[in-house]
Design brief:
alpha/beta, 5-stranded mixed beta sheet, 4-stranded mixed beta sheet, 9 strands
Length: 181
């Protein structure tokens, strides 16, 4: 299965307050995010991380990535500079890019950390998946109602967990919240 996530901000204490996350401490947040991830993503699954995995540097990134299941790909965000440090183990990711176009069956997905106003295939039904804004779930609902195929896959918009490609498609087609599936 294919999953997406963004804006986990592992180890970032201030994100709890800034985004009104339901955690008392950064350790509580980190453990909940790891548990939510591993309860959905299995070792053979693919997971695309659309940026801002952690602000805490290569040591924290390496330790967390070893705990998280799935075949991981990174779309760099504005807080992913740890990947450029010599002590970061690049092999945690199958690749690291700034932008990617993914085809799943007949559907195209444009992956970027940042939301785009226009994207390749927009007029032919391609979805643009992003993070960065820390939107709540109402953002995706609003875009669906307006017919704007741009979806925030960040944990703040996705019940603090990765979201599957099938859940996103069902949400778009049937108007159901991804966690209702």
């Amino acid at each position: 299965m294919i999953f997406f996530t963004a804006d986990t901000h592992f180890g970032h204490r201030n994100v709890i307050q800034f985004e009104n996350r339901p955690f008392r401490t950064v350790d509580e947040m980190d453990e909940a995010l790891v548990e939510n991830w591993n309860s959905r993503v299995f070792p053979e699954d693919e997971i695309y991380i659309l940026g801002d995995f952690t602000l805490k540097g290569p040591g924290v990134a390496n330790a967390l990535l070893e705990r998280l299941q799935g075949r991981k790909y990174l779309i760099r965000g504005n807080h992913d500079s740890y990947v450029n440090r010599a002590s970061f183990h690049q092999e945690h990711f199958l690749w690291i890019k700034d932008y990617y176009e993914l085809q799943h069956r007949e559907q195209w997905f444009i992956l970027c950390h940042y939301p785009l106003l226009s994207w390749n295939g927009m007029d032919r039904g391609a979805f643009q998946l992003h993070g960065h804004q820390h939107n709540g779930p109402l953002y995706n609902e609003g875009n669906r109602k307006m017919g704007v195929a741009r979806l925030d896959v960040g944990v703040d918009a996705q019940a603090m967990a990765p979201v599957s490609i099938e859940e996103l498609l069902a949400f778009w087609e049937k108007g159901r919240c991804p966690r209702e599936i």
